[in-house]
Amino acid sequence: MKYIVFILFTVMTNAAAQLMLKQGMMSLGPISFEGVNPLVKLLQIVFSPWVFLGLCTFVISMASHLYVLSKVELSFAYPFLSLAYVAVAIFAYFVFREDLNGWRIAGIAFICVGTVLIAQSGRGHEDQTASIKIPANETVR
User: How is 53-101 classified by DSSP, letter by letter?
Assistant: First the structure.
């Protein structure tokens, strides 16, 4: 559980990136490729401030996730990413005034329960390479 801070950092940066991308796409308005070179339009989207910041935040999130994967089992770390759905739904409700109805709240509750169960399943075998022990009375050849 000592890597939980990094796991949660990954989750929060992932959620923040989603919110930035949404803000960026809202500021650009509906996308149309009529009469415009698609490559030029794609570059306009990617380099708009909110979208670019969101993409950069995704890179930070991925770097954090790679660090976590070097320390704990994938089957332990990956399910925590579902908490990003929870964070996005809650923040989207407050920031973008998106609907948060009973079905979504129930889904969020199930995600949270599942994540707690996975967290309780073990420590994720942290530092997997450090867990290989050689008995003191044996030599390595």
Answer: HHHHHHHHHHHHHHHHHTTS-HHHHGGGGGHHHHHHHHHHHHHS-----
Q: What would the pLDDT profile of 64-118 be if each residue is shown by its tens digit?
A: 999 999 999 998 899 999 999 999 999 999 999 999 999 999 999 999 999 999 8
Listed by start position, the domains of the chain span 4-131
Our measurement of the distance from residue 47's CA atom to the centroid of its chain's CA atoms, rounded to an integer in Å, reads 22
In a 10 Å sphere around its CB, with 0-12 CB exposed, 13-18 middle and 19+ buried, how is residue 18 labelled?
buried
Question: What is the pLDDT, as a whole number, of residue 43?
Answer: 94
Task: For 90-125, give the DSSP string.
Answer: HHHHHHS-----HHHHHHHHHHHHHHHHHHHT----
- Over residues 27-41, the pLDDT tens digits come to 999 988 888 899 999
Whether 82 contacts 56, CB under 8 Å: no
Amino acid at position 139, single letter: T
pTM of the model: 0.81
Distance CA 121, CA 89 (A): 26
Inter-helix orientation angle 83-95/102-120, to 10° = 150
